[in-house]
């Protein structure tokens, strides 16, 4: 990977990193993906490579990565307040855990993130703790509606079984489901919003008799959104089933999987 100049002025604690595309199919233009990553509680330093290389082996894609290894700092705020942060990308992938972020005030997330997606008609992919990012922010409900589900907590660090709800959907068709994750942190889903289609779920752990959705798609005001709450541990993210599923989600969100 090579570092390139960050597109937001004043960013000192983070950098945009460009990675060469690893093409599964050299025909056509690659999907230009902006990977936003960093925060607490996860190995984002290695996960940025696990995802970019794993997806790149399966999808004709080019990645640029904004890695900010902190929870709430000026670098993250400055990045999104740059009105051009999303320009030039076909899709934004969020693998973040900025879970304590309450900066910017009500309307900040909508104005600087969601509205930019709508203005540029840029689809999104949300992974794991992106669901908990901004969960204490004044814009939490808007953020969760954009994602398609809401979550505020998780269960124990134990593997769980992923079962299909929509086995014919192109994102999960062909995956060996049910699938037992090698490691796990099952997110408790509180809300599933009206334009969200759950694709898989898992039975709760430790006596929890509820099923929790963990792969879904969302239509947010005409934008395609793919999300999964699976992916806390590197062992899970490195698994071929996981990388196949996320890669299919990227293709679907980009409108290249029907």
Task: Write up this protein.
Residues 1-25 have low confidence and may be disordered. It contains 6 helices and 13 strands. By secondary structure, it is of the alpha/beta class. The chain is globular and about 45 Å long. Helix content is 23%, strand content 30%. The chain has one domain (2-150, 213-253): Rossmann fold (3-Layer(aba) Sandwich).
Which properties best describe this structure?
alpha/beta; Rossmann fold; disordered N terminus; 258 residues; eleven-stranded mixed sheet; globular; 23% helix
Task: Give a quick rundown of the structure.
The chain is α/β, with parallel strands linked by helices and 258 residues long. The chain is 23% helix and 30% strand.
Q: How many H/I helices? A: 6
User: What is the helix fraction of residues, given as a range?
Assistant: 10-25%
Kindly provide the name of the CATH class: Alpha Beta
Global outline: globular
Question: What proportion strand?
Answer: 25-35%
Instruction: Find the CATH topology.
Output: Rossmann fold
Q: Between the first and last Cα atoms, what is the distance in angstroms?
A: 32 Å
Q: Which structural class do the helices and strands define?
A: alpha/beta
Summarize the biggest pleated sheet. Answer: 11 strands, mixed
The rounded Rg comes to 17 Å
Pattern of helices and strands: EEEHEHEHEHEEEEEEEHH
Q: How are the strands ordered across the major sheet?
A: 1-2-4-3-5-6-13-12-11-8-9
**Which CATH architecture?**
3-Layer(aba) Sandwich
- How many domains make up the 3D coordinates? 1
Average pLDDT reading = 84
Poorly predicted runs: 1-25
């Amino acid at each position: 990977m090579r570092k390139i100049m960050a597109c937001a002025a004043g960013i000192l604690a983070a950098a945009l990193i460009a990675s060469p595309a690893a093409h599964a199919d050299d025909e056509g233009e690659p999907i230009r993906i902006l990977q936003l990553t960093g925060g607490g509680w996860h190995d984002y330093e290695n996960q940025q490579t696990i995802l970019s290389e794993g997806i790149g082996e399966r999808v004709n894609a080019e990645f640029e990565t904004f890695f900010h290894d902190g929870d709430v700092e000026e670098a993250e705020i400055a990045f999104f307040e740059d009105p051009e942060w999303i320009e030039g990308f076909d899709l934004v992938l969020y693998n973040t855990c900025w879970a304590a972020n309450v900066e910017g005030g009500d309307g900040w997330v909508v104005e600087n993130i969601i509205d930019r997606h709508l203005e540029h008609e840029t689809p999104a992919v949300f992974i794991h703790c992106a669901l908990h990012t901004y969960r204490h922010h004044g814009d939490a409900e808007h953020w969760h509606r954009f994602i398609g589900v809401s979550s505020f907590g998780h269960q124990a660090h134990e593997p769980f079984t992923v079962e299909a709800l929509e086995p014919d959907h192109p994102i999960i068709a062909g995956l060996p489901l049910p699938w037992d994750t090698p490691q796990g942190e099952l997110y408790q889903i509180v809300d599933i919003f009206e334009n969200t289609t759950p694709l898989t779920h898992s039975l709760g752990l430790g006596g929890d008799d509820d099923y929790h959705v963990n792969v879904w798609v969302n239509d947010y005001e005409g934008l395609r959104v793919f999300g999964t709450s699976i992916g806390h541990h590197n062992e899970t993210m490195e698994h071929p089933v996981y990388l196949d599923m996320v890669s299919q989600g990227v293709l679907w969100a980009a409108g290249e999987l029907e």
